[in-house]
Design a protein that fits this description.
alpha/beta, single chain, 247 residues, 28% strand, binds zinc ion, seven-stranded mixed beta sheet, 8 helices, globular
Length: 247
């Protein structure tokens, strides 16, 4: 099945029901996890996936709440007796990601996190805003302010976009314009910004994630509709999922 699942809709804040940022994308039989914040490893297990099932991790930027579960994920990959990893893990990120991942692994040593070359970690540094996995071309532009990269792709005639960490600015409006479904960082921006973004971009479905505060979906939808927004805003929970239709 082709679908998007929000593994984590929270932030650095420790909460019972919201893990830090992570989106699981399953299309054409491949799995891509966009961001890997605290709790992602456990969420992957809850989604009935094995360590090997995750072949591609894309990092929006190198902030703790977007990458920290790479450590327990690799540790389990190396040392688990019930689910050891055997396949190559690909990690994609912006400039500097190779050295960042190398430093992260060297903090504990390769024997701890990439044991005995049982599997390989291949880090792909993306300098030119685009890369391909399988049949899918991903657009990976910088969205300020935190050297953060959004992720955008087409599937079966529809456009999908994730913002990672983003503030409200012109680049974000351009990035989201006329997208069919977007998962946006709604925690760093105000309710007014969310409404404005919906009106200006007319994204058909906006999934609000990376929540630093609880949002009132009803009020947001009402306010946006009054301003001429024709789509729908959804306040996400962990494991919120939507199928990607194939025409
Ligand atoms: Zn963040």
């Amino acid at each position: 099945m082709n679908k998007i699942t929000l593994l984590g809709t929270g932030t650095c804040q420790i909460q019972h029901d919201r893990m830090a940022s992570s989106v699981l994308l399953e299309i054409d039989g491949m799995r891509v996890v966009y961001d890997f914040g605290r709790g992602t490893t456990q969420q992957i297990l809850k989604a009935n996936l094995k360590n090997d099932d995750v072949e591609h991790i894309v990092l929006s930027h190198f902030h703790t709440d977007h990458i920290s579960d790479i450590i327990p994920f690799l540790h389990a990959a190396s040392w688990s007796q019930i689910d050891p990893r055997t396949r190559t893990l690909n990690i994609y990120g912006g400039l500097g990601v190779k050295i960042q991942i190398m430093r992260l692994i060297s903090l504990f040593g390769p024997e701890e996190l990439v044991r005995d070359e049982r599997f390989e970690v291949v880090v792909h540094e993306i300098p030119d805003e685009e890369f391909v996995i399988g049949k899918t071309r991903f657009y990976f532009p910088v969205l300020p302010p935190a050297n953060n990269h959004g992720l955008k792709f087409e599937f079966a005639g529809r456009t999908y976009a994730f913002t990672g960490d983003s503030h409200f600015h012109e680049q974000e409006v351009d990035f989201l314009k006329d997208v069919d479904l977007a998962v946006i960082d709604s925690g760093h921006i105000t309710d007014d910004n969310i409404v404005e973004l919906a009106v200006l971009t007319q994204v058909k479905t906006i999934i609000c994630s990376h929540l630093y505060r609880e949002l009132n979906g009803e009020t947001l939808n009402l306010r946006a509709a009054q301003r001429g927004y024709r789509g729908k805003l959804v306040v996400a929970r962990d494991f919120f999922a939507c199928e990607l239709p194939v025409i």
